[in-house]
Write a structure and sequence with these properties.
Layout lengths: L1 E6 L4 E22 L5 E18 L5 E10 L4 H14 L6 E8 L16 H15 L3 H20 L5 H10 L5 H19 L6 H19 L1 H10 L8
Length: about 240
């Protein structure tokens, strides 16, 4: 049977050949309590998990796809319907899909090549942010981005206080432009909201914040190379 699933090696949806498929039902008891600690209401809920082991028809990379469905009743008929739909289509439209996991979650080149040459602390911070992003841990990734900004500011002007003082000092010292200062302030505010107010940025907003700090650090990294290129580039003459 051929299914279309995301291939970690190809980096996009590809036709997948089903190698094995298993189902596992989980029955959970849930209840609420009264003020005196006694049970107020008890309910049962059933989760029906499908474990699909597949192989990409393009590159032969193996993957495990785990989908967790919540069923509204303990009826075996509902579980049977879910399993039949998954067998036929790779996914069920009758069950309530509450969570999906793909293994492995890494890509062919998870970290940009330029980060390999960074100073160790920056390199590790960036790699952990990329890993958190790949796993969908957007709040954690956002906090990591804020940490990179903090380290950058501390390296440039010292540990002089909170983020506002550091960002203002970067601007006053002309280390960053007014536009960069405004962008960094947005990034720091988003990171602080993730750390202290339970904010989980969307994938789009996280990617934008990551690009802002990538640009700042990559320009810093290539500073010496840029100066070398400027020195090596022939000067214009009056005739051209």
């Amino acid at each position: 049977m051929e299914l279309w699933k995301n291939c970690w090696n190809c980096g996009h949806d590809t036709p997948q050949e089903r190698v094995a498929l298993e189902f596992f039902p989980r029955i959970l008891e849930m209840f609420s309590k009264k003020d005196d600690g006694k049970v107020n209401q008890r309910a049962w809920s059933v989760f029906y998990d499908s474990y699909l082991f597949a192989k990409c028809r393009k590159c032969s990379a193996p993957s495990l796809f785990v989908d967790e469905y919540w069923t509204q009743t303990t009826s075996t008929e509902e579980s049977k319907l879910i399993s039949e739909e998954v067998k036929a289509n790779g996914v069920s439209k009758s069950g309530n899909l509450v969570h999906s996991l793909n293994y492995p979650a890494f890509s062919k080149n998870p970290f940009p090549q330029w980060t390999h040459d960074l100073e160790e602390t920056y390199m590790v911070l960036f790699w952990e942010v990329y890993q958190a992003t790949a796993l969908g841990l957007n709040s954690l990734a956002m906090m990591g981005i804020r940490t990179i900004v903090d380290k950058y500011a501390s390296d440039k002007i010292g540990d002089i206080g909170g983020f506002e003082k550091k960002l203002n000092a970067l601007l006053e010292s002309k280390i960053v432009s007014s536009d960069q200062h405004a962008l960094l302030k947005v990034v720091v505010d988003a990171g602080s909201a993730s750390a202290h107010r339970g904010y989980k940025p969307s994938n789009k907003h996280l990617k934008s914040c990551l690009q802002i700090i990538e640009h700042l650090i990559s320009v810093e990294k290539f500073g010496d190379v840029i100066n070398e290129i400027k020195q090596a580039t022939p000067k214009r003459t009056h005739n051209n």
